[in-house]
Amino acid sequence: MVKDPIRRHEDAVGAEAVRRSTGRGRDEWFTVLDEVGATGWRHPAIAAWLVDHGVDGWWAQSITVGYEQARGMREPGQRPDGRFEASATRTLPVPTDVTLSWLTDPELRARWLDVVPEVRSTRAVKSVRWSWPDGARVTLHVLPAPGDRTRLSVQHSAADGDAIAPLKEEWSGRFDRLQAAITEPS
To answer: pLDDT tens digit string along 82-99?
Structure first.
């Protein structure tokens, strides 16, 4: 079972972390954004305004998502363009080249993945893009993690917000199977 599969920004990012990292609390940023009319702006414009006002890029994106959710401009799990997307992350105990082989080699992939995707593209030790049999888009990002490990994340497009929790649950199971396959003695 996936713990807290869909969380609002304020449930995922602590108020003290926002203040410590940006110099203002979430509500203070939201008030300033309301004053400048940001409810009428698109996501990139809000994030750019925050960066122009001294907020680090990652935090600008985070505050923008929280603001959009708080003002009814987007739902949890919804992308700025209106589409929905489920995501999951796992740190695997192997280097990125090993992880990438389990994503790109059809024989290895069949040992853990319960679907046969159409491979759209692969970027060496960066990402793999698949089309799912139902037409959904799936992107896996492969990033190095400390200790010669891999941080693997997936974004899976969803029909609507109700599809996110089941997709997160499915990916948690898939990542469990991948981790077991990778670490199984040869």
So the answer is: 888 888 889 999 999 999
